[in-house]
Design a protein that fits this description.
Elements lengths: L18 H13 L15 E6 L14 H10 L4 E3 L11 E3 L2 E6 L5 E6 L13 H12 L10 H4 L1 H4 L2 E8 L2 E6 L6 H5 L12 H11 L10 E7 L3 E6 L14 E6 L3 H9 L5 E3 L6 H6 L3 E5 L4 E6 L9 H9 L3 H8 L4 E3 L22 H10 L6 E8 L8 H15 L1 E8 L1 H10 L5 E8 L5 H6 L18 H11 L4 H18 L2 E7 L1 E5 L3 E2 L15 E2 L1
Parallel strand pairs: 1-10, 1-11, 15-16, 15-17
Antiparallel strand pairs: 2-3, 4-5, 5-7, 6-7, 8-9, 9-10, 11-19, 12-19, 13-17, 13-18, 14-18, 20-21
Length: 546
Protein backbone atom coordinates (compact mmCIF):
# COMPACT_ATOMS: atom_id res chain seq x y z
CA UNK A 1 0.00 0.00 0.00
CA UNK A 2 2.90 2.34 0.60
CA UNK A 3 4.08 2.04 -2.98
CA UNK A 4 0.86 3.61 -4.26
CA UNK A 5 1.68 6.74 -2.32
CA UNK A 6 4.86 7.32 -4.33
CA UNK A 7 3.90 9.48 -7.28
CA UNK A 8 5.68 12.00 -9.43
CA UNK A 9 7.93 14.37 -7.47
CA UNK A 10 9.07 17.54 -9.17
CA UNK A 11 9.12 17.55 -12.95
CA UNK A 12 6.23 15.81 -14.78
CA UNK A 13 6.88 12.26 -15.82
CA UNK A 14 9.65 11.68 -13.26
CA UNK A 15 8.89 8.81 -10.91
CA UNK A 16 11.34 8.18 -8.12
CA UNK A 17 12.31 4.96 -6.53
CA UNK A 18 11.96 6.09 -2.97
CA UNK A 19 10.07 2.96 -1.96
CA UNK A 20 12.77 1.79 0.43
CA UNK A 21 13.05 5.12 2.20
CA UNK A 22 9.29 5.72 2.31
CA UNK A 23 8.87 2.21 3.67
CA UNK A 24 11.57 2.95 6.22
CA UNK A 25 9.68 5.94 7.62
CA UNK A 26 6.38 4.10 7.48
CA UNK A 27 7.74 1.10 9.39
CA UNK A 28 9.19 3.37 12.03
CA UNK A 29 5.90 5.20 12.39
CA UNK A 30 3.90 2.01 12.75
CA UNK A 31 6.38 0.50 15.18
CA UNK A 32 6.37 3.55 17.42
CA UNK A 33 2.71 4.51 17.07
CA UNK A 34 1.60 6.11 20.29
CA UNK A 35 5.13 6.73 21.55
CA UNK A 36 6.35 10.27 22.07
CA UNK A 37 10.02 9.39 22.48
CA UNK A 38 12.51 6.65 21.66
CA UNK A 39 12.78 3.64 23.96
CA UNK A 40 15.42 3.49 26.71
CA UNK A 41 18.81 2.15 25.70
CA UNK A 42 19.51 -1.53 26.15
CA UNK A 43 23.31 -1.21 26.32
CA UNK A 44 25.37 -1.44 29.51
CA UNK A 45 26.41 1.72 31.31
CA UNK A 46 28.91 3.77 29.28
CA UNK A 47 28.94 1.25 26.45
CA UNK A 48 28.11 2.99 23.19
CA UNK A 49 26.60 0.86 20.42
CA UNK A 50 27.23 2.21 16.94
CA UNK A 51 25.45 0.81 13.86
CA UNK A 52 27.33 1.45 10.62
CA UNK A 53 26.29 0.73 7.06
CA UNK A 54 28.06 -2.58 6.42
CA UNK A 55 30.13 -5.25 8.09
CA UNK A 56 33.89 -4.87 8.35
CA UNK A 57 36.70 -6.32 6.30
CA UNK A 58 40.05 -7.53 7.63
CA UNK A 59 41.39 -5.94 10.83
CA UNK A 60 44.98 -6.23 9.63
CA UNK A 61 45.76 -2.56 8.85
CA UNK A 62 48.07 -3.50 5.99
CA UNK A 63 45.35 -5.58 4.30
CA UNK A 64 42.13 -3.85 5.33
CA UNK A 65 39.61 -2.39 2.93
CA UNK A 66 36.69 0.07 3.13
CA UNK A 67 36.13 3.23 5.13
CA UNK A 68 33.87 1.43 7.59
CA UNK A 69 36.76 -0.85 8.49
CA UNK A 70 39.13 2.10 8.80
CA UNK A 71 36.73 3.67 11.31
CA UNK A 72 37.73 0.79 13.58
CA UNK A 73 41.34 0.41 12.44
CA UNK A 74 42.22 4.04 13.24
CA UNK A 75 41.13 3.56 16.86
CA UNK A 76 43.22 0.41 17.42
CA UNK A 77 46.34 1.29 15.40
CA UNK A 78 48.33 4.50 14.99
CA UNK A 79 50.90 5.97 12.63
CA UNK A 80 53.64 8.57 13.00
CA UNK A 81 51.04 11.33 12.65
CA UNK A 82 47.28 11.67 12.97
CA UNK A 83 44.44 13.89 11.78
CA UNK A 84 42.80 15.86 14.59
CA UNK A 85 39.14 14.98 14.07
CA UNK A 86 37.99 16.22 17.48
CA UNK A 87 37.16 19.77 16.45
CA UNK A 88 34.54 19.18 13.76
CA UNK A 89 33.76 22.03 11.39
CA UNK A 90 34.37 22.31 7.65
CA UNK A 91 38.13 22.97 7.68
CA UNK A 92 40.51 20.21 6.61
CA UNK A 93 41.68 18.53 9.85
CA UNK A 94 45.11 19.49 11.20
CA UNK A 95 47.95 16.97 11.07
CA UNK A 96 49.23 16.40 14.62
CA UNK A 97 51.98 14.24 16.18
CA UNK A 98 51.08 10.67 17.14
CA UNK A 99 53.72 7.91 17.41
CA UNK A 100 56.27 10.53 16.36
CA UNK A 101 56.66 13.49 18.70
CA UNK A 102 58.10 15.59 15.89
CA UNK A 103 59.77 15.27 12.51
CA UNK A 104 62.28 17.00 10.26
CA UNK A 105 61.95 17.33 6.50
CA UNK A 106 65.05 17.76 4.33
CA UNK A 107 65.44 20.87 2.18
CA UNK A 108 64.74 18.90 -0.98
CA UNK A 109 61.54 17.48 0.56
CA UNK A 110 62.62 13.87 0.01
CA UNK A 111 63.68 12.76 3.51
CA UNK A 112 61.53 12.62 6.66
CA UNK A 113 63.24 12.00 9.98
CA UNK A 114 60.73 10.97 12.66
CA UNK A 115 61.62 11.40 16.33
CA UNK A 116 59.55 8.70 17.96
CA UNK A 117 57.52 8.99 21.13
CA UNK A 118 59.20 7.25 24.06
CA UNK A 119 57.44 5.07 26.63
CA UNK A 120 54.68 3.87 24.28
CA UNK A 121 53.73 0.20 24.25
CA UNK A 122 51.55 -1.90 22.01
CA UNK A 123 48.51 -3.42 23.71
CA UNK A 124 50.48 -6.65 24.31
CA UNK A 125 53.36 -4.82 26.05
CA UNK A 126 55.71 -4.77 23.05
CA UNK A 127 57.69 -1.51 23.08
CA UNK A 128 57.20 1.03 20.30
CA UNK A 129 60.54 2.07 18.82
CA UNK A 130 62.38 2.41 15.52
CA UNK A 131 62.79 -1.36 15.14
CA UNK A 132 59.01 -1.74 15.41
CA UNK A 133 58.62 0.97 12.76
CA UNK A 134 61.06 -0.87 10.48
CA UNK A 135 59.18 -4.15 11.01
CA UNK A 136 55.98 -2.48 9.83
CA UNK A 137 57.61 -0.84 6.79
CA UNK A 138 59.19 -4.19 5.89
CA UNK A 139 55.81 -5.87 6.22
CA UNK A 140 54.11 -3.35 3.94
CA UNK A 141 56.80 -2.92 1.28
CA UNK A 142 59.50 -5.62 1.33
CA UNK A 143 58.42 -8.67 -0.63
CA UNK A 144 61.17 -10.97 0.69
CA UNK A 145 60.44 -10.12 4.34
CA UNK A 146 59.34 -13.17 6.34
CA UNK A 147 56.12 -11.48 7.48
CA UNK A 148 55.42 -9.46 4.33
CA UNK A 149 51.70 -8.88 3.79
CA UNK A 150 51.32 -9.83 0.10
CA UNK A 151 48.18 -7.77 -0.57
CA UNK A 152 49.72 -4.58 0.81
CA UNK A 153 51.65 -3.40 -2.29
CA UNK A 154 48.55 -3.63 -4.48
CA UNK A 155 46.36 -1.89 -1.90
CA UNK A 156 48.81 0.77 -0.76
CA UNK A 157 50.56 2.11 -3.83
CA UNK A 158 48.89 5.43 -2.99
CA UNK A 159 51.11 5.59 0.12
CA UNK A 160 54.41 4.01 -0.83
CA UNK A 161 54.79 4.56 -4.59
CA UNK A 162 57.40 7.29 -3.98
CA UNK A 163 59.32 5.28 -1.34
CA UNK A 164 63.05 4.92 -1.93
CA UNK A 165 64.44 3.59 1.37
CA UNK A 166 64.12 3.72 5.15
CA UNK A 167 66.43 3.16 8.08
CA UNK A 168 66.72 2.92 11.84
CA UNK A 169 68.88 5.87 12.91
CA UNK A 170 68.78 5.02 16.60
CA UNK A 171 66.30 3.48 19.05
CA UNK A 172 63.83 6.34 18.75
CA UNK A 173 64.69 7.87 15.38
CA UNK A 174 63.44 6.54 12.06
CA UNK A 175 64.14 7.98 8.62
CA UNK A 176 62.15 7.58 5.40
CA UNK A 177 63.64 8.61 2.04
CA UNK A 178 61.48 9.28 -1.02
CA UNK A 179 62.33 9.17 -4.73
CA UNK A 180 60.68 12.55 -5.18
CA UNK A 181 58.97 15.07 -2.89
CA UNK A 182 55.41 14.22 -1.90
CA UNK A 183 53.48 17.25 -0.69
CA UNK A 184 50.78 15.00 0.79
CA UNK A 185 53.08 12.47 2.46
CA UNK A 186 52.13 13.22 6.07
CA UNK A 187 48.41 13.54 5.40
CA UNK A 188 48.41 10.25 3.52
CA UNK A 189 50.02 8.62 6.56
CA UNK A 190 46.88 9.48 8.53
CA UNK A 191 44.54 8.02 5.90
CA UNK A 192 43.18 4.56 5.20
CA UNK A 193 40.43 2.55 3.60
CA UNK A 194 42.64 0.75 1.08
CA UNK A 195 45.22 -0.51 3.51
CA UNK A 196 46.46 1.85 6.22
CA UNK A 197 50.08 2.79 7.05
CA UNK A 198 49.57 2.07 10.76
CA UNK A 199 51.71 0.18 13.18
CA UNK A 200 50.89 -3.33 14.36
CA UNK A 201 52.68 -5.21 17.13
CA UNK A 202 55.67 -7.15 15.71
CA UNK A 203 55.30 -9.67 18.53
CA UNK A 204 51.67 -10.30 17.63
CA UNK A 205 52.49 -10.82 13.94
CA UNK A 206 55.31 -13.23 14.79
CA UNK A 207 53.06 -15.11 17.21
CA UNK A 208 49.93 -15.39 15.10
CA UNK A 209 51.28 -15.07 11.55
CA UNK A 210 49.74 -13.19 8.64
CA UNK A 211 46.82 -15.58 8.35
CA UNK A 212 45.61 -15.16 11.93
CA UNK A 213 46.73 -11.68 12.97
CA UNK A 214 43.39 -10.14 12.05
CA UNK A 215 41.82 -12.19 14.84
CA UNK A 216 44.39 -10.62 17.19
CA UNK A 217 44.70 -6.98 16.04
CA UNK A 218 47.13 -5.32 18.44
CA UNK A 219 48.19 -1.71 18.05
CA UNK A 220 49.01 1.26 20.27
CA UNK A 221 45.72 3.13 19.86
CA UNK A 222 43.20 4.51 22.36
CA UNK A 223 41.03 1.39 22.05
CA UNK A 224 41.92 -2.29 22.35
CA UNK A 225 40.30 -5.12 20.44
CA UNK A 226 37.96 -7.28 22.55
CA UNK A 227 36.04 -9.57 20.19
CA UNK A 228 34.48 -9.89 16.79
CA UNK A 229 31.48 -11.98 15.80
CA UNK A 230 31.44 -11.71 12.01
CA UNK A 231 28.12 -10.38 10.78
CA UNK A 232 27.02 -9.43 14.28
CA UNK A 233 29.35 -7.15 16.20
CA UNK A 234 32.88 -5.89 16.78
CA UNK A 235 33.82 -4.75 20.28
CA UNK A 236 36.66 -2.42 21.29
CA UNK A 237 37.45 -1.26 24.84
CA UNK A 238 39.19 1.73 26.37
CA UNK A 239 42.98 1.40 26.57
CA UNK A 240 43.60 2.59 30.13
CA UNK A 241 47.35 2.68 29.45
CA UNK A 242 47.01 4.94 26.41
CA UNK A 243 49.91 7.39 26.13
CA UNK A 244 47.81 10.47 25.28
CA UNK A 245 45.95 11.59 28.42
CA UNK A 246 44.04 14.24 26.47
CA UNK A 247 42.61 11.61 24.13
CA UNK A 248 41.86 8.76 26.52
CA UNK A 249 38.42 7.39 25.64
CA UNK A 250 35.49 8.45 27.78
CA UNK A 251 33.40 5.36 26.97
CA UNK A 252 34.40 2.02 28.47
CA UNK A 253 33.45 0.10 25.35
CA UNK A 254 32.32 0.75 21.79
CA UNK A 255 30.25 -1.97 20.15
CA UNK A 256 30.15 -1.57 16.36
CA UNK A 257 27.52 -3.36 14.34
CA UNK A 258 27.32 -3.56 10.56
CA UNK A 259 23.64 -3.24 9.59
CA UNK A 260 23.26 -2.71 5.83
CA UNK A 261 19.47 -2.21 5.80
CA UNK A 262 18.67 1.41 6.61
CA UNK A 263 15.21 0.62 8.04
CA UNK A 264 16.76 -1.97 10.37
CA UNK A 265 19.35 0.56 11.56
CA UNK A 266 16.63 3.10 12.28
CA UNK A 267 14.47 0.61 14.16
CA UNK A 268 17.50 -0.43 16.20
CA UNK A 269 18.05 3.21 17.16
CA UNK A 270 14.52 4.08 18.21
CA UNK A 271 14.05 0.77 20.05
CA UNK A 272 17.16 1.39 22.17
CA UNK A 273 19.17 -1.45 20.64
CA UNK A 274 21.87 0.97 19.40
CA UNK A 275 22.92 4.51 20.33
CA UNK A 276 24.22 5.98 17.05
CA UNK A 277 23.52 5.06 13.44
CA UNK A 278 25.24 6.05 10.25
CA UNK A 279 23.29 7.46 7.31
CA UNK A 280 19.60 7.30 8.15
CA UNK A 281 17.22 7.65 5.23
CA UNK A 282 16.61 11.26 4.19
CA UNK A 283 12.88 10.51 4.44
CA UNK A 284 13.21 9.50 8.10
CA UNK A 285 15.03 12.56 9.46
CA UNK A 286 12.00 14.59 10.53
CA UNK A 287 10.38 11.60 12.17
CA UNK A 288 13.57 10.76 14.06
CA UNK A 289 13.84 14.35 15.28
CA UNK A 290 10.28 14.10 16.60
CA UNK A 291 11.39 11.09 18.65
CA UNK A 292 14.12 13.13 20.35
CA UNK A 293 16.98 11.91 18.16
CA UNK A 294 19.73 14.39 17.28
CA UNK A 295 20.63 14.54 13.59
CA UNK A 296 24.32 15.36 13.14
CA UNK A 297 25.39 16.49 9.67
CA UNK A 298 28.66 17.69 8.22
CA UNK A 299 30.57 18.36 5.05
CA UNK A 300 32.27 15.35 3.53
CA UNK A 301 34.80 14.86 0.73
CA UNK A 302 32.72 11.86 -0.39
CA UNK A 303 31.33 11.86 -3.89
CA UNK A 304 30.00 9.16 -6.17
CA UNK A 305 32.29 8.13 -9.00
CA UNK A 306 31.42 6.21 -12.16
CA UNK A 307 33.89 3.67 -13.55
CA UNK A 308 33.52 2.93 -17.27
CA UNK A 309 34.75 -0.35 -18.73
CA UNK A 310 37.24 0.53 -21.47
CA UNK A 311 37.38 -3.13 -22.56
CA UNK A 312 33.63 -3.24 -23.19
CA UNK A 313 32.84 -3.18 -26.95
CA UNK A 314 30.32 -0.34 -26.54
CA UNK A 315 32.30 1.87 -24.17
CA UNK A 316 35.55 1.65 -26.08
CA UNK A 317 34.19 4.56 -28.13
CA UNK A 318 34.73 7.88 -26.35
CA UNK A 319 31.50 9.21 -27.89
CA UNK A 320 29.54 6.55 -26.01
CA UNK A 321 31.30 7.42 -22.77
CA UNK A 322 30.51 11.12 -23.27
CA UNK A 323 26.90 10.30 -24.06
CA UNK A 324 26.66 8.44 -20.77
CA UNK A 325 27.94 11.50 -18.90
CA UNK A 326 25.50 13.82 -20.71
CA UNK A 327 22.54 11.57 -19.89
CA UNK A 328 22.74 12.08 -16.12
CA UNK A 329 20.40 14.66 -14.57
CA UNK A 330 22.64 15.49 -11.61
CA UNK A 331 20.63 18.48 -10.38
CA UNK A 332 17.40 16.52 -9.94
CA UNK A 333 19.27 13.53 -8.54
CA UNK A 334 20.78 15.60 -5.72
CA UNK A 335 17.51 17.45 -5.08
CA UNK A 336 15.05 14.57 -5.13
CA UNK A 337 16.92 11.28 -4.76
CA UNK A 338 19.06 12.65 -1.90
CA UNK A 339 16.45 15.10 -0.61
CA UNK A 340 18.82 18.05 -0.79
CA UNK A 341 21.50 16.38 1.35
CA UNK A 342 23.82 16.37 -1.65
CA UNK A 343 24.97 18.60 -4.47
CA UNK A 344 25.79 17.75 -8.09
CA UNK A 345 29.37 16.79 -8.85
CA UNK A 346 31.36 16.64 -12.07
CA UNK A 347 34.74 15.23 -12.96
CA UNK A 348 37.24 13.60 -10.61
CA UNK A 349 38.25 16.34 -8.15
CA UNK A 350 36.07 16.29 -5.07
CA UNK A 351 34.80 18.93 -2.68
CA UNK A 352 37.19 19.20 0.26
CA UNK A 353 40.14 17.90 -1.74
CA UNK A 354 42.98 19.71 -3.54
CA UNK A 355 42.20 21.31 -6.86
CA UNK A 356 38.43 21.36 -6.41
CA UNK A 357 36.63 23.95 -8.55
CA UNK A 358 32.89 24.32 -7.83
CA UNK A 359 32.29 25.84 -11.29
CA UNK A 360 33.86 22.96 -13.22
CA UNK A 361 31.80 20.58 -15.38
CA UNK A 362 33.10 17.71 -17.48
CA UNK A 363 29.79 17.62 -19.38
CA UNK A 364 26.38 19.27 -19.48
CA UNK A 365 23.05 17.53 -18.99
CA UNK A 366 21.94 17.11 -22.60
CA UNK A 367 19.95 13.94 -23.37
CA UNK A 368 19.30 14.97 -26.98
CA UNK A 369 23.00 15.60 -27.50
CA UNK A 370 23.70 12.19 -25.93
CA UNK A 371 21.38 10.50 -28.45
CA UNK A 372 23.22 12.20 -31.32
CA UNK A 373 26.60 10.99 -30.04
CA UNK A 374 25.28 7.44 -29.73
CA UNK A 375 23.98 7.59 -33.29
CA UNK A 376 27.35 8.86 -34.53
CA UNK A 377 29.02 5.97 -32.71
CA UNK A 378 26.79 3.49 -34.55
CA UNK A 379 24.07 3.03 -31.93
CA UNK A 380 21.02 4.97 -33.23
CA UNK A 381 18.77 2.54 -31.37
CA UNK A 382 21.00 2.32 -28.30
CA UNK A 383 22.35 -0.88 -26.79
CA UNK A 384 22.14 -3.00 -23.65
CA UNK A 385 24.69 -3.25 -20.85
CA UNK A 386 24.99 -4.16 -17.17
CA UNK A 387 25.67 -2.05 -14.09
CA UNK A 388 27.45 -3.72 -11.13
CA UNK A 389 26.58 -1.86 -7.93
CA UNK A 390 27.38 -2.04 -4.23
CA UNK A 391 24.83 -1.77 -1.43
CA UNK A 392 27.47 0.52 0.02
CA UNK A 393 29.21 1.11 3.31
CA UNK A 394 30.28 4.26 5.13
CA UNK A 395 27.72 7.07 4.59
CA UNK A 396 25.99 5.23 1.74
CA UNK A 397 22.20 4.96 1.72
CA UNK A 398 19.81 3.59 -0.90
CA UNK A 399 22.54 3.06 -3.47
CA UNK A 400 20.16 0.76 -5.31
CA UNK A 401 17.87 3.78 -5.70
CA UNK A 402 20.81 5.70 -7.15
CA UNK A 403 21.45 2.90 -9.64
CA UNK A 404 17.78 2.83 -10.64
CA UNK A 405 17.76 6.61 -11.12
CA UNK A 406 20.77 6.36 -13.43
CA UNK A 407 19.22 3.38 -15.18
CA UNK A 408 16.19 5.53 -16.07
CA UNK A 409 18.37 8.44 -17.22
CA UNK A 410 20.40 6.11 -19.43
CA UNK A 411 17.31 4.46 -20.88
CA UNK A 412 16.01 7.87 -22.02
CA UNK A 413 18.97 8.15 -24.40
CA UNK A 414 18.90 4.48 -25.49
CA UNK A 415 21.33 2.81 -23.06
CA UNK A 416 19.32 -0.04 -21.54
CA UNK A 417 21.06 -1.32 -18.41
CA UNK A 418 20.34 -4.13 -15.99
CA UNK A 419 21.55 -3.82 -12.39
CA UNK A 420 23.30 -6.39 -10.20
CA UNK A 421 23.79 -5.54 -6.52
CA UNK A 422 26.60 -6.83 -4.26
CA UNK A 423 27.51 -6.47 -0.60
CA UNK A 424 30.33 -4.01 -0.14
CA UNK A 425 33.17 -6.41 0.69
CA UNK A 426 32.31 -8.67 -2.27
CA UNK A 427 32.08 -5.63 -4.52
CA UNK A 428 35.59 -4.42 -3.70
CA UNK A 429 37.05 -7.92 -4.09
CA UNK A 430 35.53 -7.89 -7.58
CA UNK A 431 36.83 -4.40 -8.32
CA UNK A 432 40.40 -5.49 -7.58
CA UNK A 433 40.05 -8.10 -10.33
CA UNK A 434 38.67 -5.62 -12.85
CA UNK A 435 35.17 -5.10 -14.20
CA UNK A 436 33.46 -8.23 -15.45
CA UNK A 437 32.82 -8.98 -19.11
CA UNK A 438 29.39 -7.61 -19.94
CA UNK A 439 29.53 -4.90 -17.28
CA UNK A 440 29.78 -1.43 -18.78
CA UNK A 441 29.39 0.77 -15.71
CA UNK A 442 29.91 0.59 -11.99
CA UNK A 443 30.03 3.09 -9.17
CA UNK A 444 30.97 3.65 -5.55
CA UNK A 445 31.63 6.53 -3.20
CA UNK A 446 35.18 7.86 -2.97
CA UNK A 447 36.99 11.21 -2.76
CA UNK A 448 39.29 12.27 0.06
CA UNK A 449 41.03 15.25 1.64
CA UNK A 450 44.10 14.18 -0.37
CA UNK A 451 44.19 13.11 -4.00
CA UNK A 452 45.62 9.73 -2.94
CA UNK A 453 42.43 8.08 -4.13
CA UNK A 454 43.22 9.13 -7.71
CA UNK A 455 46.46 7.15 -7.48
CA UNK A 456 44.23 4.16 -6.73
CA UNK A 457 41.67 4.52 -9.51
CA UNK A 458 43.18 6.22 -12.58
CA UNK A 459 46.88 5.26 -12.73
CA UNK A 460 48.44 2.39 -14.65
CA UNK A 461 49.90 1.08 -11.38
CA UNK A 462 46.34 0.52 -10.17
CA UNK A 463 45.28 -1.63 -13.13
CA UNK A 464 44.00 -5.13 -12.21
CA UNK A 465 44.98 -7.18 -10.32
CA UNK A 466 45.87 -4.14 -8.22
CA UNK A 467 43.18 -1.90 -6.83
CA UNK A 468 41.23 -0.06 -8.20
CA UNK A 469 41.56 1.08 -11.82
CA UNK A 470 38.86 -1.45 -12.47
CA UNK A 471 37.71 -0.06 -15.83
CA UNK A 472 41.15 -0.61 -17.42
CA UNK A 473 41.87 3.06 -18.15
CA UNK A 474 45.43 3.02 -19.48
CA UNK A 475 46.95 6.48 -19.95
CA UNK A 476 50.55 6.93 -18.71
CA UNK A 477 50.13 10.71 -19.04
CA UNK A 478 47.96 10.58 -15.91
CA UNK A 479 50.75 8.82 -13.98
CA UNK A 480 53.11 11.60 -15.00
CA UNK A 481 50.75 14.43 -14.05
CA UNK A 482 49.86 12.94 -10.65
CA UNK A 483 53.55 12.40 -9.88
CA UNK A 484 54.16 16.05 -10.69
CA UNK A 485 51.24 17.05 -8.47
CA UNK A 486 52.65 15.03 -5.56
CA UNK A 487 56.04 16.65 -6.04
CA UNK A 488 54.72 20.20 -6.26
CA UNK A 489 56.44 22.69 -3.98
CA UNK A 490 53.37 24.93 -3.60
CA UNK A 491 49.59 24.32 -3.48
CA UNK A 492 49.09 26.38 -6.63
CA UNK A 493 51.48 24.12 -8.55
CA UNK A 494 49.69 21.03 -7.22
CA UNK A 495 46.31 22.38 -8.27
CA UNK A 496 47.61 23.22 -11.75
CA UNK A 497 48.81 19.65 -12.33
CA UNK A 498 45.61 18.20 -10.87
CA UNK A 499 43.56 20.37 -13.23
CA UNK A 500 45.63 19.10 -16.15
CA UNK A 501 44.99 15.50 -15.06
CA UNK A 502 41.29 16.25 -14.53
CA UNK A 503 41.00 17.69 -18.04
CA UNK A 504 42.80 14.75 -19.69
CA UNK A 505 40.47 12.30 -17.88
CA UNK A 506 37.46 14.38 -18.97
CA UNK A 507 38.65 14.47 -22.58
CA UNK A 508 39.02 10.69 -22.47
CA UNK A 509 35.79 10.51 -20.42
CA UNK A 510 37.44 7.75 -18.44
CA UNK A 511 35.53 8.55 -15.23
CA UNK A 512 32.84 10.92 -14.12
CA UNK A 513 30.91 11.62 -10.92
CA UNK A 514 27.33 12.59 -10.17
CA UNK A 515 26.85 13.92 -6.63
CA UNK A 516 28.63 14.89 -3.43
CA UNK A 517 26.88 13.72 -0.26
CA UNK A 518 26.80 15.21 3.22
CA UNK A 519 27.64 13.00 6.20
CA UNK A 520 24.51 12.29 8.26
CA UNK A 521 24.30 10.46 11.59
CA UNK A 522 21.48 9.98 14.08
CA UNK A 523 22.39 10.05 17.79
CA UNK A 524 20.33 9.26 20.88
CA UNK A 525 19.94 12.18 23.30
CA UNK A 526 21.91 10.52 26.11
CA UNK A 527 25.03 10.21 23.90
CA UNK A 528 27.45 13.13 24.09
CA UNK A 529 30.73 14.06 22.42
CA UNK A 530 30.07 12.79 18.88
CA UNK A 531 31.41 15.32 16.37
CA UNK A 532 31.95 15.20 12.62
CA UNK A 533 35.03 16.53 10.88
CA UNK A 534 35.04 16.84 7.06
CA UNK A 535 36.36 13.32 6.62
CA UNK A 536 35.00 9.81 5.97
CA UNK A 537 35.90 8.67 9.47
CA UNK A 538 35.63 10.14 12.95
CA UNK A 539 37.15 10.16 16.43
CA UNK A 540 35.21 8.19 19.06
CA UNK A 541 37.44 8.99 22.04
CA UNK A 542 35.16 11.78 23.31
CA UNK A 543 31.91 9.85 22.86
CA UNK A 544 30.16 8.88 26.09
CA UNK A 545 26.71 8.19 27.55
CA UNK A 546 25.13 10.15 30.36
Amino acid sequence: MFRKQVKSIGSPGRFFNVWSTVASSAILAVTLAGSAMIAPTAAAANTVVFAVESDFSRLDPHASRTWNTFKVVRHIFESFVEEDLTKGGDVTPEIVPALAERWDVSEDGKSYTFHLRKGVQFHDGTPWNAEAAKFNLDRMTKKDFEFHQPVSPGLMGWMWQDLDSYEVVDEYTFKINLKQPNAEFLRRMAAGGSGAPRMISPTAVKTHGNDNIEQHPIGTGPFKFVERVVGEKLVIARNDAYWNEARKPKAEQIVLRGIPEVATRELALVSGEVDIIGTPSPDSLEFLKQQGVEIVTGQSPMFYVMWINHKDPHFKDVRVRKAMCMAINREDMAKYQRKGLAQPSYGVLNLGGPGYDPAYKDCEYDPEGAKKLLAEAGYPDGFTTRMDWTFGAGADVNTKGDAEWLQRDFEKVGIKATIEMFDNNTFWEMMSKGMRDGTGLTSASWGESTFAWLDQVVTTNALPPNCCNSGYYDNPKIDELLAQARGAARPEEMDKKLHEARDVIAEDMAFTSYYTAMSVYAVRPDVKGFVLAPQHWFDLTAVTKQ
